[in-house]
């Protein structure tokens, strides 16, 4: 039964005491029952509301009706009760606020026995890792890294690299051309670069000799995917041009690079070859680092070197003077400068380095496979 204010039967101190005690007991009881902020607001309004709040009623029913001689005494009591009510209301508010903070803290509590959230750390793709390692070898030799667009013009991809107009590499069988460009002159037609070599010309147009650059990047050819082919793959090329570069510089540089990359025990060997943009041209082979050059692993034939004891790594040669003709306006006078260039497949390097026998594994994005190399 909720407390209600009733008229006093007289204004004696005893009666006042009893009525005040009853009121304070009700105040305390109601304060104890408060659970949340809406409870507290209702409590505050019930006691303090100007219109018809408990204390207003006390004022009306006890003080206003008191005879003159009792007014002072009753007034003092009513003031004490008002103060007590204010304090109780204030204390009740503090209590529910403290309770809210506490329950928030409990909600935020960490259960240290729960398993942690694992965030796998990313790692370089094995092809990129092998490429970066090889690029690092040449950077240590003073080569700087250059990059270029993957969509190229016929001019940079073929013409300026001394590919004759009817060279088989220009055939759509090998090259992925961008569609609907028949109205453009041939040299402006766009294609997906088939090698990183266009960056050699682009760099020589920008930077006067001497230069030493290494060029990593993606290239594209119209090859169906199989264990050793992919329509997208990665190359690393290099170019050094100065006034007195010889084939001896080429051999010394590449021999050092192969030892730095595959291990100091590998031997190198050069075989004559042909590329449109180098003359003379060669293929570089390294002695097989799997079988040590014997062609056999125990009683089994060695697969990486196909039992020959040698593995083909890259193509290279002295820059054909015809290539310098395209950039002679920037200081590459064919009679004054000479240089060497080389190019290799970064994917092939990765296959060899990590002993993987199917190129497709690198591009299937199976994390179980890729994470072995992280
Ligand atoms: Zn071998």
Report on the structure:
This protein has 12 helices and 11 strands. It is an alpha+beta fold. The protein has a 7-stranded mixed β-sheet, sandwiched between helices. A two-stranded antiparallel sheet has the order 2-3. α1 runs parallel beside α4. It binds zinc ion. Zinc ion (ZN) is lined by residues 288, 290-291, 295, 302, 304-305, 309.
Topology:
Elements: H1 13-32, H2 37-48, H3 54-63, H4 68-108, H5 126-140, E1 144-145, E2 151-153, H6 154-157, E3 190-192, H7 198-206, E4 211-220, E5 232-242, H8 247-262, E6 268-275, E7 278-287, E8 296-297, E9 300-301, E10 310-319, H9 321-325, E11 338-345, H10 346-354, H11 360-363, H12 367-370
Parallel strand pairs: 1-4
Antiparallel strand pairs: 2-3, 4-5, 5-11, 6-7, 7-10, 8-9, 10-11
Helix pairs in contact: 1-4, 2-4, 3-4, 5-10
Bound molecules: zinc ion.
The site of zinc ion has 8 residues, from loops.
Sum up the structure in keywords:
374 residues; 40% helix; rod-shaped; 7-stranded mixed sheet; single chain; alpha+beta
Number of helices: 12
Rg calc = 45 Å
Instruction: Output mean pLDDT.
Output: 91
Percentage of β-strand residues: 15-25%
Which structural class is indicated by helix and strand composition? alpha+beta
Placed side by side, the strands forming the largest sheet appear as: 1-4-5-11-10-7-6
3D shape: rod-shaped
Helix content: 25-40%
> Major beta sheet, specifics?
7 strands, mixed
Spans where pLDDT lies below 50 across 5 or more residues: none
Strands, total number = 11
In this entry the ligands are:
zinc ion
Distance between the termini: 75 Å
The H/E string reads HHHHHEEHEHEEHEEEEEHEHHH
């Amino acid at each position: 039964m909720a407390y209600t204010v009733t008229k006093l039967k007289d204004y004696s101190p005893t009666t006042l005491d009893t009525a005040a005690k009853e009121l304070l007991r009700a105040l305390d009881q109601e304060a104890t029952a408060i659970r949340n902020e809406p409870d507290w607001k209702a409590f505050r309004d019930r006691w303090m509301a100007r219109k018809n709040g408990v204390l207003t009623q006390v004022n009306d029913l006890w003080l206003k009706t008191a005879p003159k001689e009792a007014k002072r005494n009753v007034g003092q009591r009513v003031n004490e009760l008002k103060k007590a009510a204010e304090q109780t209301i204030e204390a009740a508010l503090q209590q529910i606020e403290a309770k809210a903070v506490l329950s928030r803290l409990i909600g935020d509590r960490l259960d240290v026995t729960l398993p942690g959230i694992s965030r796998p750390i990313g790692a370089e793709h094995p092809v990129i890792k092998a490429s970066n390692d090889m690029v690092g070898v040449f950077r240590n030799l003073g080569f700087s890294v250059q990059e270029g667009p993957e969509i190229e013009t016929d001019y940079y991809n073929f013409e300026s690299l001394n590919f004759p107009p009817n060279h088989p590499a220009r055939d759509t069988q090998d090259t992925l051309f961008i569609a609907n460009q028949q109205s453009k002159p041939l040299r402006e037609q766009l294609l997906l670069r088939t090698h990183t070599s266009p960056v050699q010309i682009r760099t020589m147009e920008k930077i006067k000799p001497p230069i030493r650059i290494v060029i990593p990047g993606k290239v594209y050819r119209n090859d169906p995917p199989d264990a050793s082919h992919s329509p997208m793959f990665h190359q690393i090329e290099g170019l050094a041009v100065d006034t007195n570069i010889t084939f001896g510089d080429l051999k010394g540089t590449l021999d050092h690079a192969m030892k730095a990359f595959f291990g100091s025990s590998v031997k190198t060997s050069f075989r004559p070859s042909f590329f449109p943009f180098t003359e003379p041209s060669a293929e570089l082979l390294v002695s097989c680092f799997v079988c040590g050059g014997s062609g056999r692993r125990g009683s089994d034939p060695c697969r990486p070197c196909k039992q020959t004891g040698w593995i083909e790594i890259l193509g290279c040669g002295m820059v054909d003077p015809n290539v310098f003709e395209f950039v002679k306006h920037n200081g590459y006078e064919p009679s004054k400068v000479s240089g060497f260039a080389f190019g290799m497949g970064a994917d092939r390097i990765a296959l060899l380095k990590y002993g993987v026998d199917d190129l497709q594994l690198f591009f299937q994005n199976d994390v179980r496979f890729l994470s072995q190399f992280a």
